[in-house]
Each structure stands twice: as structure tokens, then as C-alpha cells.
Amino acid sequence: MNRALGFLEELGWRALALLLAAFMGGPLVLVVLFSFNQSALTSLPLTGFTLDWYRKLFSLGAFWPALWNSLIVAGLVAVLSVAIGTMAALLLARMAPRRAEGLIAIISVPMMLPALIIGVAMMSYFVRLIDLPLGLPTVILGHLVIAQPFVILIVFSRLATFDWAVVDSARDLGASPLRAFLTVTLPIIRPTIVGAALIALSISLDDFVITFFTIGAGNTLPTLVWGMVRTSLDPTINAIATLLILLSVGSTFLALRVSRYRG
What pTM, to 2 d.p., does this model score? Predict the structure, then answer.
């Protein structure tokens, strides 16, 4: 009897997990399917397979500048986040645990705030306080606010179990702090750094709210999708959304793979 109840309970939890996965992943699957649908109507059943919507997207004049802007912003955010975040994580790892925990709590605040609040605050700060024109530089700064905490926490979690004796041995043998970092610390934590960079890249590529408030003129891929949705329901939107899914989800999975994430 107990075994039967245990089996039914396990079956119920698996069914619930499957339903939740279908609920969350179903819309993404439909977006991808409709991007290949021959009909201009986003409805089931599908009428046939076509690549016309991708051809139309690639011939769209606004697509390539938006893609270029997204790649520039995401690439710079990834590089700057890793450079600053790794230095911050190294400093935190050398601090007393209680002091480091307090600083990490402060650093993590942007992760808990709604993106709308951050976007409005960044726009007001740039425009009214420091009189900085809105553009790609302000978008990069805005994305750093939300991506930086992830990088710091990821690298810091790796350094929490780091054996600092190997670095001390290199210093005792005459290596400078920079040389010890480049030849000892960096090779050991490189997979984690690469994974953190890819996660920052994914966060930047996927962001709409902060970009909307800080970009001024021009577009990135998410803001281009927003502009297209406001004017029509052209299946080209599904094509560009599919590309965004591939870029963001692909970079995240690659990050988990490179950083040797095990759950």
C-alpha cells in the first residue's frame, strides 16, 4: 500500500513538473513554429513550412543596425562585467566572511529591484543629474547595473573554494601579484569567468525595459520587436523573436557548459 502511494505521489509530482514545463516553454515553441509557418496568421494548424519570413526579416532595413547595436552592447557589457566583476570577486574573497557578506548583499540589490525602477532611475540620472546624452553608452552602463552582480556572485562562488596556497607559493617564488594572477589564478578560474561573461551577454541581449529608457534614438533587437508589435502582427516578429531565443538561451546553455555547472 505504501509503495503504491509513493508511486502515485511521484507520478503526480512528475506530471506537475511536466505541466509547468509545458506552460513555460509552450509559448517559446509556438513562436519558433509560427516563424516557419506559411500563413501570415499566427494560428493553428500550421499551413506549411517556409523561410520567407526570415528572408523578409533579413531584407528589413532596420534589422541589421538593431542587430549590430545589440551585439556591440552585449559584447562590451560581457567584457566590462568580467573585468570589473573578477576584480571585485577577488577582493571579496580575501575579506573577512562577515564583511564580504554585507557587501554582497548591497551588490545584489539590483537583482531584486524591478527593471522598470532601474530604467527610470538610470534615465533620470543620465539626463537630469549628469546631463549625459542617451545612446549606446548609456545602455551599456544601464546593462552593467543588472549584469554586474551576476558576474560577481558567480566568480565569488568559485573563489570561495579556491586554494590560495598555490598563489602564496607563486609569490614566495618571486612572482609579482599580476604574474601570479595570470599564471596561477586565471587558468584555474577561466571556465567560471567565461561562463559568467556568457551569462552577462545573455542578460544584455534579452533586456528591453532598461534599454527602452536609456537608448534615446536607435534600436536594439528587443526594442525593434516592441516597435514592430505596436504597428502590426507580421510573422517577421516571430522570426526575430526566434533569433533572440537562440542568442540568449544558446549563450546561457554554453555558459553553464563552459563553467562546468552541475546544479
Answer: 0.79
For CA atoms 188, 254, 153, 141, the dihedral sign is positive
Q: What is the pLDDT of residues 202-226, one digit of tens each?
A: 888 888 889 989 888 788 888 888 8
What CATH number should be reported for the domain whose range is 61-258?
A: 1.10.3720.10
The DSSP secondary-structure symbol of 45 reads S
Beta-carbon neighbour count of residue 29 at 10 Å? 11
Is 136 in contact with 75 (CB distance < 8 Å)? no
Yes or no: say if 152 and 199 are a contact pair by the CB < 8 Å rule.
no
Residue 179, number of CB atoms within 10 A of its CB: 12
Phi, psi of 160 (to 5 degrees): -65, -25
pLDDT of residue 262: 44
The x, y and z cell numbers of residue 149, run together, are 552582480
Show the CA angle centred on residue 248, arms to residues 244 and 253, nearest 5°: 140
User: Hey, how many other C-beta atoms are within 10 angstroms of the C-beta on 214?
Assistant: 28
**More confident site: 190 or 232:** 190
Q: What is the pLDDT of residue 80?
A: 93
What is residue 263's predicted lDDT score, i.e. its pLDDT? 40
CA distance 208 to 117: 13
* 174 contacts: CB under 8 Å, gap ≥ 6: none
